[in-house]
Structure formats: C-alpha cells, structure tokens
Design goal:
about 250 residues, 6-stranded antiparallel β-sheet, alpha+beta
C-alpha cells in the first residue's frame, strides 16, 4: 500500500514541477532517490509520464489529461473540436489537423482530409517539432516565458533551410504569433509541407492543443497562408470557448 501511495504522490508532485528530474523530485518530496526512481518507472510503464531532455527529465503524457477530463465531466477535446474542424475543412478544402500538447512537443491526434487529390498525410500519433511546425509554434507561443526558455535550452534542431534555429529569432517569431493569433510554417519542418495553426486554450488560458490547416507548399504562398490564418484563428477560439476558456475582453465585459 505504501508503494502505491508513494507512486501517486510522485505523480502529483511531478505534475506541479514538470519537467523535473528524479533528484529534484526526491529532494522536494523528502523521499529516498531509489523510492522515487521506482515510482517513476511504474508511472512510465503505465503510460502516465514520459522522458524528455538531457539529462533525463519527466513530464506528464496526455493520459493524465484524458483521465482528468473524464473525472471532472469536462467535454472531450475531440467532441468539441471535430465539428468545428469539419466546418473549417468545408470552408478552405485543405487538410485540418488537431494536435495536443505533450511535454515539450505536440502530438497529432485527429486529421480531416481535403478532397483535393494532392494532400498532406501525416500518421496519427506523429510527434511534431515545437519550433518547426505551425501547431508547435502556436502552442509554444501560448505558453509562459519560463516554458519557452526551458524549450530553448534543449537546442533547436534544423530540419530544412528555413527552420528557425536561432533562439533570438524564435523569440521574435513567437511574439509575432502572439500578436496575430496564429503561426505560419513555410517548409520549416519539411520542404513540401506548409501550414497555419492557432492554439486551443483551456479554462486557465494554457494551451491544450493546436488546430491547423496543412497543405503542400506548392499550393500556397504567404498571402494565402495569412488568409487561412484568419479562418484557423476563429476556429481555435470557438473550440477554446467551448472548453471553458474566456477571452480577456469577454471576461471584462461580464
């Protein structure tokens, strides 16, 4: 019984401090490092946590989010998002993706495909870069400054010639994303993929997901991406509102 209680306590403490290493967790909880290590191993095997960074740190997976929503009776993200995504797809006739925040990266969980014969097909479960994908940049821009700096310490992998791999340049890009409400990707992750995405915010204002419009780079230019950005920003706001997020202007009006 004590082992079970320790494991649950480690899960709760990790949720507050993530990403966090075993030594820091052990000090914070005043438990032996070996006890915390065993608890982390159990949680990892069960799919509740994942490793990130070097040296190893631990973060929650989306399993905690899904269980939490079931426990509180909140609407499931997909239940809310898919009807809005369907409307977005009909309007723009391009592939629409939904990706959820998981640690320092985002994971593709839903895809609605375009009717056009040439399309972007990414497998569900695909991990997307936080700095070189539209969904990744949209989510990263909505996180706290501290979270952004933690991400930068891991280094910025260069995927293509247009990937932003300079920390100062990425900070400036994220400021632009915050100001206009959506992120652009013009071949930064893969040369043949372009996208525009906006963050989906939870009740506390933190990003829980991103919704994006994806297309072959050959079928778009910057002007079209900006036009699509207005559509995806409106869709993301609609999903956020349904999840319980209240925009600052709406909060002041109430």
């Amino acid at each position: 019984m004590q082992n079970v209680l320790n494991t649950l306590r480690v899960l709760e403490e990790l949720a507050v401090r993530q990403p966090v290493g075993v030594a820091d967790l052990a000090r914070a909880m005043e438990l032996p490092k070996s006890t915390v290590q065993r608890a982390l191993g159990t949680l990892h095997t069960a799919g509740w946590i994942k490793q990130t960074g070097t040296p190893t740190r631990w973060t929650l997976t989306t399993k905690a989010l899904l269980i939490g929503r079931q426990a509180t009776g909140e609407l499931d993200l997909r239940d809310v998002a898919v009807p809005v995504m369907e409307g977005l797809r009909r309007t723009v006739d391009e592939t629409v993706h939904l990706a959820v925040a998981e640690g320092e990266r985002v994971v593709l969980v839903e895809r609605l495909e375009t009717t056009q014969p040439v399309r972007i097909v990414l497998p569900l479960g695909q991990h997307l870069s936080g700095h070189a994908s539209a969904n990744g940049k949209a989510i990263l821009a909505a996180r706290s400054p501290e979270a952004v700096e933690r991400y930068l310490t891991q280094g910025l992998t260069r995927f293509t010639d247009t990937t932003i791999d300079d920390p100062a340049a990425l900070r400036a890009e994220l400021e632009t994303v915050r100001a206009r409400g959506y992120a652009l990707n013009q071949g930064e992750w893969r040369d043949d993929v372009s996208a525009v995405a906006a963050p989906v915010l939870g009740p506390d204002g933190s990003p829980v997901a991103g919704v994006s419009i994806n297309m072959p780079s050959s079928r778009c230019d910057r002007d079209r991406l900006v036009e699509l950005g207005e559509h995806v920003r409106a869709a993301a706001r609609k999903i956020s509102t349904a999840l319980g997020h209240q925009a600052p202007d709406a909060a002041r009006a109430s």
